[in-house]
Amino acid sequence: MLNQIKQIIHDFDYSRISLSRKKELHLLIDYLTDKLKNYSEISLVFVCTHNSRRSQFAQVWAQVAATYYNLPFYSFSAGTEVTEANKRTISSLERLGFIVSKEGKENPHYGVKYDELKNEILLFSKDLSHSSLPKNNFAAIMTCSHADENCPFISNCDARIPLRYEDPKAFDNTELEKTKYDERAKEIGIEIFYIFSQLTNN
After folding, report:
1. How would DSSP label each residue in 1-63?
2. Checking phi first, is residue 148 left (phi over 0); if not, alpha (psi -120 to 50) or beta?
3. Considering the chain, what is the average pLDDT of its residues?
4. Euclidean distance between the first and final Cα of the chain, in Å?
5. 117, 19, 103, 102: which is closest to 63 by C-alpha?
6. pLDDT tens profile 153-180
7. Which of 29, 140, 166, 192 has the most CB atoms in a 10 Å sphere around its CB?
């Protein structure tokens, strides 16, 4: 694991997660605990409207956590509309210590590296019909209220679980932009790592 990312993970303090929020997170913990008993590989698809901010953060942290805890999970993200991975999301990941490469101009593909083994997460905006997404044996994790409320059906998912976060878009082009994007990225990170830590304790 790259040093800066390793330090962020080391500093995650699960006591900062409220008891009420932990109850919400246990919906996903229970699903994953059950799946681990019966399947060797499990996929998570994080969904928000534009697949540009929160779902991308969640995809990254879930794949990092899977590597960190050596769990057989594969992480994806998608939206109800295709836009592109927001440049502010990418900049936040870079500030957190991820190494990012870019390919293409329209809806560019970003390769996000998090360890010395050159493991790479591919980020780009896609909708739920994209060919790269799993077709079965996956949970759809709804990271925004708009997608959760306006996407009533996701084909072939085993479970649909809400894991909503506030949109850092509200702070675009303000003095708080960088701070709020980094706060949201770390909030998602600590909750994803809490979820995965509970699986290793069971």
Report:
1. --HHHHHHHHH--GGGS-HHHHHHHHHHHHHHHHHHTT-S-EEEEEEESSSSSHHHHHHHHHH
2. alpha
3. 93
4. 24
5. 117
6. 788 899 999 999 999 999 999 999 999 9
7. 192
* 63-83: pLDDT as tens digits: 999 999 999 999 999 998 999
Helix/strand/coil for 76: strand
**How big is the chain by its Cα radius of gyration, in Å?**
16
**Residues ≥6 apart with Cβ < 8 Å to 38:** none
Run of H or E residues at 110: strand 109-113
Delimit the domains of the chain by residue range: 35-85+124-201
pLDDT the model gives residue 200: 77
Cβ neighbours around 38 below 10 Å, total: 8
Confidence of residue 202 (pLDDT cuts 50, 70, 90): low
Dihedral sign for Cα 51, 150, 133, 27, please: positive
How far apart CA 135 and CA 184 sit, in angstroms, is 29
Name the region of 151 (left: φ>0; alpha: ψ -120 to 50; beta: rest): beta
Task: Tell me what the mean pLDDT of segment 98-119 comes to.
Answer: 93
Fold assignment, 35-85+124-201? Rossmann fold (3.40.50)
